[in-house]
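Retro notes
What went well: the complex prediction finally ran end to end.
Inputs used:
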Amino acid sequence: MFKRLSNAIASVEMFVAALLAAAVTLLVLLNIVSRAMGQAIYWVDELAIYSMVWMTFLATSTVLKKRQGVSVTILTDCLPTRSRHWLAVFSDLMILVFAVALFALCWRWYSPVALWQAGFDFQAFQAETFNFMYSENTSTIGIKKFWVWLVLPVFALSLAVHALINLYDSIRTAGSAAGEPV
Amino acid sequence: MTLLIFLLLLFTAVPIALVLALTAIWYIGSSGNTVLFESYPQQLFGAIESYGLLAIPLFMLAGELMNEGGLTRRLIDLARILVGGFRGGLAYINLVANMMMAAIMGSAASQIAIMSRAMVPAMEKEGYDKSYSAAITAAGGLLSPIIPPSMLFVLFGVLAQVPIAEMFIAGIIPGLLMSLLFFLTISLMGLVHQYPKGEWPTRRQAWHFLLMGIPAGFIPLVIIGGILTGLATPTESAAMASLGALLIGKYVYKDLQFSHLFGIFKRTAINSGMVIMLIAAAGVFGWVIVFEQIPQNAAAWIAGQTSDPFVFLLMVVGILLLVGMVIDGIAALILVVPILLPIAQSQFGISPFQFGVVVCLTLVMGLLTPPVGAGLFIASSMTGASPMRIFRSLLPFLAATLITLVLLSWQGGLVTMLL
C-alpha cells in the first residue's frame, strides 16, 4: 500500500518537475522576446528562478527514491556483497534522517500550531513568536514568500515516504542475503 | 568530530548532497549555535535562488535537443570537410566535432556519452584501435568545460560571485590552446599508431555536408556570439540555443518528434536537479566551513609553504588532482572554491578568472582518472573497451592537459587577455 503511495508520489513529482523544466525554458524565452519588443516583463526572471528551485527539489526526491544520487562509491565497491547490503541500509537510513530532520525544521519555521492559536493573524503571530517568516514578500511576483518556500516541507515529507519504503526494502534484502550461504 | 561524520557519510556512499546537508545539521547541533536551525530551510532554498543557475537546465536541454534532433551527426559531417582527408582523418574529425560540441554543451560527461556513441563505431570500422578511439573521444570531452558554455564555469561564477559571461570569455583562449595541444598529441601518436588513411569527401558530398551542417553550426555561433557581444546573458543564449535546436531538429532535419519532448524535459529536470541540489546543500555546509575557520587555517598553512602565486597554483592543481580522483568534479568544486578562492585572491593576488579556469580544468581531469572517473566508465560502457585500456591510451592527452594547466598557472594573461 505504502509502496504504491510512494510510486504515485514519485510519478507526480517527475511529471511536475518536467513541466517546470519546460516552464523555465519558456519563461526565459518570453523574457528575451518581451525585452526585444521593448516591453520587458519585470516578474519573469523571479518566476523562472522559483520554477527552477521547485524543479530541483521535486527531481531530487525522485532521484533519491531511485537511489541515483551522486555518491562516492570507491570504498563500498571493494566490499563483499553482504556488507554492501548493510551499507545500503545505512545510506537509506541517513536519507530518512535527513528528510525527518528537514521536516522538523520546517515545522519549527512555519510553526503551524502557533499560527493557528493566533487565529491565522500574522501580526498576532509575529508579536507572539518573533518569527517573521510570514511577512516576507517575493520581490516581483506579488505573493508572500512562504508560499514559495512551501516546496521544502513538501519535499521533506515525500522524501520521508520514499526513504521509508527504500529502507524497508534494503533491510529485507540485507536480512534475506544474510541467511544465505556466502 | 564534524570532520569524522563528514568522512563517514562520504565514504559509506550516502549521496553527496545529503552528506553536506547532514554534516551541517550535525555541526549546528553539536556547536550549540542552534539559532542557525531557524534559518536552515531558508538557507537551503536561498542558496539556489540565483539567475545564473538557470543556465544549467537550459544548457542540458540544448544538449538533449541537439542529440535528438540529429544536429550532432551533421556537425560531425561538417568536421569531415575540414580535416577528413588527412592521415588519421577520423581522429581529427573526432576532435574538431568535439570542439564544436563543446561550444554547445556544458557538461563533459554527457558529451563523452554522446560522442562515444557517434564516433567510436565509425573509427573502429575504419581500422582504429577501439580503446584508442574511445580515448580520443573521452579526451575531446575535456574541452567541454573549458570552451564556453560550461556548466562548471556557471557553478564557479555562482560560487565565486563573478559574472558568468566573463568567465565564459576567459575560457576561450585556454580552450583553443588545449585543442591545439590535442592536435599535436594526435599527430605525434600517429607516429606510433599508423593511422588509416583519411578520405576527403567528394565535391558533391562536401556541398551536401556543408548545406546540411550550416543550420547546426549556427547554434554554437549563436551561443558564443550572444555571450561575447553581451547581447544575451549566458542563460538567455542557452534558451535560444534550445529553441534553435528544437526548430532545426524538427523542421530542417525532421529527426525530432514532439512526442519525445516530454522525455527530454524529464531528463533535463533530473540531471540538472542533481547538480543544483548540490549547490543548495553547499549553502548550508558553508556554515561549517565559515564557523570552523577552515579557509583561515588552510591559508595559514599554505602561506607557510610558499609565497609565489605560480607555486601556489601548482599546489592547488596537485591537491585537486587527488581530490578529483575520489570525488565528483562538481561536488569537489563546491567544496574547494569557498576554501581556496579567498586565499588565492587575498594572499596571492590571483585573478578569480585564472583561478576558476585552472580549478575547473583540473577537476574535469578527475573525470578521466581511475578509480572513480565517471567519464572513463561512460566511454567504456558506450564502447565496450575496458576502462583501464582506455586510460592507458588517454595518458598522452592527460599529459597535454597537464601542460595546459602549467601554462595557465604560469601565465594568467592567457586567461584574462580577452576580458
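What we learned: DSSP finds seven helices and no strands in chain A.
What to try next: split runs per interface for comparison.
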